[in-house]
UniProtKB/TrEMBL annotation:
Its EC number is 1.1.1.85. Substrate binds at residues 87, 97, 121, 212. Mg(2+) binds at residues 212, 236, 240. It comes from the Bacteria. This is 3-isopropylmalate dehydrogenase. Binds 1 Mg(2+) or Mn(2+) ion per subunit. The record marks 128, 179 as: Important for catalysis. SMART domains: Iso_dh. Pathway: Amino-acid biosynthesis; L-leucine biosynthesis; L-leucine from 3-methyl-2-oxobutanoate: step 3/4. Keywords: Amino-acid biosynthesis, Branched-chain amino acid biosynthesis, Cytoplasm, Leucine biosynthesis, Magnesium, Manganese, Metal-binding, NAD, Oxidoreductase.
Length: 339
């Protein structure tokens, strides 16, 4: 297994070290190559993601990424020039984000019930494409646009993937989350696509919610969700809510998938570089470890993924919720439990 590792910024290197610890415990054959990308490189050389590095990354089976973003770099430089460039160049059209409330984990909700959802977020379109511009900058009449791009091809492939995941799960339920009452052009494309593809999956029941109502139901009735399919920006927002109600952002995993297998898929925690706690050794590495689980599943090693997930489930059921997290202690424990 040839793995490219991009630790990145802030707590990225701290949590990635623990993810690798666990990966090595279950898959000693892993050959991990670190790539120095992120704020430090940008400060040193002005580079974000040189083509030569991108070409090298393409030669790997998968990528493990920590986080990017730094208070000393203008907002958007690293996010667009590195993270989104990776997702777009490597055609990561599915951004897979499970959210599960594990036994022993306290949700802030009054009545959380069982939460086990799988958000299939579109990854290469929507308002993320950078299709926009500014006119009359720095004048009182400045105009800024950010146009959401939605293609039939792009919507169909992510919707189809969501149906495939839904049909393989016990509840076989899929919810489209959008804002079809306002974003009528893109909304219509998404709704029609879901309707068309649903004909091929008669076992899957389908629901629709506007994104504003959905954020409310994530808090008041999250157990209604099974698989969710949604656009890039809505998916970004609702998966932070889903993380919060299932124990916190330190436990939310993700996979950026090129489902066709042409390019390596990339696995990363949902959270960012957390500059407020970086360097203190107190970041929760669980999200990264669960992302390693997704990586193993994706690379056709479900038995190893099961070991990693079982280790996390056991650890969470025995964690003292009041104890301060030590990043490396959790990694040690999870590696020992998985290996
Ligand atoms: P963030 O996720 O970094 O932090 C939000 C809050 O969650 C902070 O209080 C942080 O301490 C806490 N937190 C995050 N991860 C944690 C963990 N593993 N354990 C414990 N606490 C954790 O989001 P932000 O503050 O909005 O963004 C900070 C920077 O990260 C920005 O530059 C942003 O663009 C970037 N970012 C990058 C990614 C990514 O690389 N995928 C994702 C989100 C944000
Ligand atoms: C995430 C992040 C990224 C996103 C940013 C940093 C580009 O918030 O991975 O959730 O919006 O997708
Ligand atoms: Mn986000």
């Amino acid at each position: 297994m040839r793995l490219a590792v991009v630790p990145g910024d802030g707590i990225g290197p701290e949590v990635v070290a623990e993810g690798l610890k666990v990966l090595r415990a279950v898959a000693p054959d892993v050959e991990a190559t670190p790539y120095d990308l992120g704020a430090a490189r940008w400060h040193r050389t002005g580079e974000l993601l040189p083509d030569s590095v991108l070409d090298e990354l393409r030669q790997h089976d998968a990528i493990l990424l920590g986080a990017v973003g730094d208070p000393g770099v203008p907002s958007g430089i690293l996010e667009r020039g590195l993270l989104l460039k990776l997702r777009f160049e490597l055609d990561h059209h599915v951004n897979l984000r499970p959210a599960k409330l594990y036994d022993g984990v306290r949700s802030p909700l009054a009545r959380p019930g069982e939460i086990d959802m799988l958000c299939v977020r579109e990854g290469t379109e929507g308002p993320y494409v950078g299709n926009g511009g500014v006119l009359r900058r720095d004048t009182p009449h400045e105009i800024a646009t950010e146009v959401s791009l939605n293609t039939a091809f792009g919507v169909e492939r992510v919707v189809r993937y969501a149906f495939e995941r839904a049909v393989a799960r016990p509840r076989k339920h899929l919810t489209l989350i959008h804002k079809t009452n306002v974003l009528t052009h893109a909304g219509s494309l998404w709704s029609r696509t879901v309707e068309e593809v649903s004909a091929e999956f008669p076992e899957v029941t389908v629901a629709y919610q506007h994104v504003d109502a959905a954020t409310m139901f994530f808090i008041t009735d999250p157990s209604r969700y099974d698989v969710i399919v949604t656009d890039n920006l809505f998916g970004d927002i609702i998966t932070d809510v889903a993380a919060a109600v299932t124990g916190g952002i330190g436990m939310a995993a993700s996979g950026n998938l090129d489902v066709s297998g042409t390019n390596p898929s990339m696995f990363e925690p949902v959270h960012g570089s957390a500059p407020d706690i970086a360097g203190q050794g107190i970041a929760d590495p669980t999200a990264t470890v669960l992302s390693v689980g997704l990586l193993l599943d994706h690379l056709g090693r479900p038995e190893l993924a099961k070991k990693v997930n079982a280790a996390v489930a056991f650890d969470l059921s025995t964690r003292d919720p009041k104890a301060t997290i030590r990043t490396s202690e959790i990694g040690d424990r999870l590696a020992a439990l998985s290996g």
